[in-house]
Write a sequence for this structure.
């Protein structure tokens, strides 16, 4: 075979190899987004449950109690898109009890508060890890070859979990 | 946290001294104490029976000069197949790769593995940035890491610049208790003492700045002694010094670990005059945990450790007159020196292994939450999928 006939074959083979490489890279990234979201989601659910428990076991004024438990309920039932907004509201309202932990008359259950601050640390980490995965995925998905050959298939574009750093 | 099987990869020769190796050894010891299973894959230069039983030898490292300093690293097909064998045979829940972005054993392991991977980035110096230049090739590999750890804000920004990715900052840990309980030795006391440790021949360690301050300091504090520890030739420094001042400076040579701890505990002030390119400054945290007042140049890494001066005094980088001013003020005021040392000791608690290892375990917990296990990425090709 002459070089002229070999060259196109070689190019096609190389392109095929590169495309399969890109596809598996993207597949791995999607997997990372899913697992990191599952982790974050479970921590957020735990926090909402914990918030309701704190309200039940302490001596809060009705306004604060209502604020916390309603935002916890909202957080648990929110759609994916509004999730970060309602979680931020929950963070804000939980700050009320975390700030007033020194006041003994409220009868705040200290072990639950410790659990809450532990959970907050973990949520921060989980958000960080999830955002990382989402950003990497979005970067790779914006590559020309990937868009051209629709390597992402029907997988939805991952959404960023927006959050304010100082709220958590 | 439940007990898991952790595989760690060290990029540099296990038997050559270095910050990364020390960090990995201490971390492995801590995790084993916590009940986890740990295996460390690392290059070893001299196969001796002395290394700990969790160390797995991956072969002899080769010395590669990286702009001035020499790195002992290992790669190539043999190392790569060793790494694959190790991953395949150990059934790990998680791999922790140190410095996965330089061509090394960690990079090989990272490209061969899939599943929960955690990477720690230590480098931040300007010098080694050349090694990061191959970023685009490394990107798909670094991207596999489930979670990234940077040892300092500087290491984090290096990572941001080169890979466009973020990391969680977890500082290097130290065994604070051992420094706090170190013995006070009379070898390092007498009059007013100022200490320095480091490979002082390297100009970036800044010993010259410290020595230049002696002329002024000794005028105000006649009984001051500078104690300099570390390997190197002292002749050159002494030759340039005014003969009358030579008795005020003592070169102690290389200290053992025990000696170093009591040195840090005994001296009245520890000085870190480094002129640049430090990533973290572990020696500062060690001196702080020993309960010794610290004076350091105001380079970013040190400013961060000393919390902008709350945990120790800062002087203008490279300015020996400013250093002398700070030293004289601090040596004269016993009360303030004590207070500063107390503040420092308190702030160094966050570098204690107890705290640091817990943070790292949090990261592990996140990484393994998916329930996946570490496996070879070749098993995931579509023709070998079951």
């Amino acid at each position: 075979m002459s070089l002229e006939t070999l060259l196109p074959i070689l190019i096609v083979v190389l392109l095929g190899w590169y495309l399969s490489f890109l596809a598996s890279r993207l597949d791995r990234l999607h997997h990372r987004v899913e697992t990191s979201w599952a982790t974050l989601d479970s921590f957020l659910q735990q926090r909402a449950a914990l918030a309701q428990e704190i309200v039940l076991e302490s001596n809060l004024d009705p306004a604060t109690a209502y604020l916390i438990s309603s935002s916890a309920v909202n957080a648990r039932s929110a759609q994916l898109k509004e999730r970060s907004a309602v979680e931020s509201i929950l963070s804000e309202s939980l700050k009320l009890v975390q700030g007033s932990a020194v006041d003994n008359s409220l009868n705040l259950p200290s072990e639950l508060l410790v659990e809450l601050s532990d959970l907050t640390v973990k949520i921060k980490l989980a958000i960080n890890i999830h955002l990382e995965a989402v950003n990497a995925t979005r970067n790779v998905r914006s590559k020309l070859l990937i868009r051209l050959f629709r390597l992402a298939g029907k997988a939805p574009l991952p959404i960023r979990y927006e959050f304010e750093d100082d709220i958590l | 946290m439940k007990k898991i099987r952790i595989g760690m990869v060290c990029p540099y020769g296990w038997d050559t001294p270095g910050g990364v190796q020390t960090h990995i050894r201490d971390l492995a010891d801590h995790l084993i104490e916590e009940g986890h299973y740990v295996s460390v894959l690392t290059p070893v230069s001299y196969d001796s029976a002395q290394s700990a039983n969790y160390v797995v030898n991956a072969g002899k490292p080769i010395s590669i000069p990286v702009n001035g300093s020499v790195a002992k690293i290992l790669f190539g097909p043999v190392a790569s197949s060793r790494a694959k064998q190790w991953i395949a045979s150990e059934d790990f829940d998680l791999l922790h790769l140190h410095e996965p972005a330089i061509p090394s054993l960690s990079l090989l392991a990272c490209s061969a593995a899939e599943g929960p991977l955690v990477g720690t980035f230590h480098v931040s110096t300007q010098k080694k940035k050349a090694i990061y230049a191959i970023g685009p090739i490394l990107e798909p590999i670094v991207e596999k890491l489930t979670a990234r750890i940077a040892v300092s804000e500087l290491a984090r920004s290096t990572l941001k610049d080169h890979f466009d990715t973020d990391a969680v900052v977890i500082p290097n840990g130290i065994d604070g208790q051992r420094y706090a309980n170190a013995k006070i030795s009379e070898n390092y006391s007498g009059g007013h003492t100022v200490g320095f440790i480091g490979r002082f021949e390297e100009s970036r360690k800044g010993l010259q700045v410290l020595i230049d301050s002696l002329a002024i300091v000794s005028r105000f504090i006649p009984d001051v002694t500078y104690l300099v520890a570390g390997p190197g030739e002292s002749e050159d420094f002494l030759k340039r010094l005014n003969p009358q001042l030579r008795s005020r400076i003592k070169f102690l040579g290389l200290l053992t670990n025990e000696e170093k701890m009591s040195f840090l505990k005994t001296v009245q002030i520890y000085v870190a005059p480094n002129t640049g390119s430090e990533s973290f400054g572990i020696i500062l945290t060690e001196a702080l945990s020993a309960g010794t007042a610290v004076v350091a140049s105001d380079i970013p890494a040190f400013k961060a450790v000393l919390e902008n001066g709350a945990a120790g005094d800062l002087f203008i980088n490279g300015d020996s007159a400013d250093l002398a001013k700070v030293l004289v003020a601090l040596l004269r005021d016993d009360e303030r020196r004590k207070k500063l040392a107390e503040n420092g000791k308190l702030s160094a608690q966050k570098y204690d292994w107890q705290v640091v290892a817990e943070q790292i375990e949090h990261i592990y917990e996140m990484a393994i939450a998916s329930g996946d296990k570490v496996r070879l990425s070749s098993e995931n090709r579509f023709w070998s999928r079951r």
Chain A has one domain: 11-148. The CA atoms of residues 16 and 29 of chain A lie 20 Å apart.
